[in-house]
Design goal:
- The complex is a heterodimer of chains A (115) and B (115).
- By secondary structure, chain A is mainly β.
- Chain A is 0% helix and 52% strand.
- Chain A contains no helices and 11 strands.
- Chain B starts with a strand and ends with a strand.
- With 115 residues, chain B is mainly β.
- The chains are: A mainly beta (115), B mainly beta (115).
Chain lengths: 115, 115
Amino acid sequence: KAGVTQTPRYLIKTRGQQVTLSCSPISGHRSVSWYQQTPGQGLQFLFEYFSETQRNKGNFPGRFSGRQFSNSRSEMNVSTLELGDSALYLCASSLTSGLGINIQYFGAGTRLSVL
Amino acid sequence: AQSVAQPEDQVNVAEGNPLTVKCTYSVSGNPYLFWYVQYPNRGLQFLLKYITGDNLVKGSYGFEAEFNKSQTSFHLKKPSALVSDSALYFCAVRDGGGYGQNFVFGPGTRLSVLP
C-alpha cells in the first residue's frame, strides 16, 4: 500500500507570492492533517480535514488555508508569503477523525524556502 | 490545554548500551500518547502508542515506552542502542476527551548513538 505522498518535495518562492502544496493520503484514509515544522517552533498543527470539512484549526493566520477533495486528497495554500513561512510542511493521514484513536502516518514533507 | 515536554535536546549513548528519551505531558483528560521518529529529510515514522492498558508499551524496532500516570511521563526506552537509531525523536499527546486529530508534539530530542 502506498504511503502518504506530498508534492512537490521542494519549493522556492519569494515574499508576497502564494503557494499550494498537495497531499495524497494512504488509500482508505479520510482524515488529513497538516503541520509546520521549523527549527525554532518545532512541529505545529495547522489544520485537519475530514470528509472535505475542516475539523480542527491551529493558531495560524488566515493566510494559511486548506481544502480536501472527495477522494480525500488535500491541498494547503499559503498566500502573501513571508520569510518566516520557510519551513518543512508535513501532511499526515489517518483512517478517521473524531474520538477514535488513529495513528497518523506522515509524508516526507514539502520544504518551502521563501526568499 | 495539552502540552508535551522533552527535557533533553540531545541524548548521546554508546552502541549496545540502553537508551532512554524522556517525555512528560499535560492534558485535561485521559492522555493518548505517541512516539515518532524522524530521519533526515524524511517525515515522521510511528513507533508506538499508549491508549490504555499495560503501562509498558512495545513498539517498532525494539523500542518500548513506559507510561507513568503519577509522574505524567512517557519515556521511550530501548535495551540496546544501534547506530542506526540515531535520529530525532518526538513525543506527542492527544487529549482523550478531545475531538479530531490535532496532536501536540514535543520539541524533539536528538539521539546520537556512538559506535
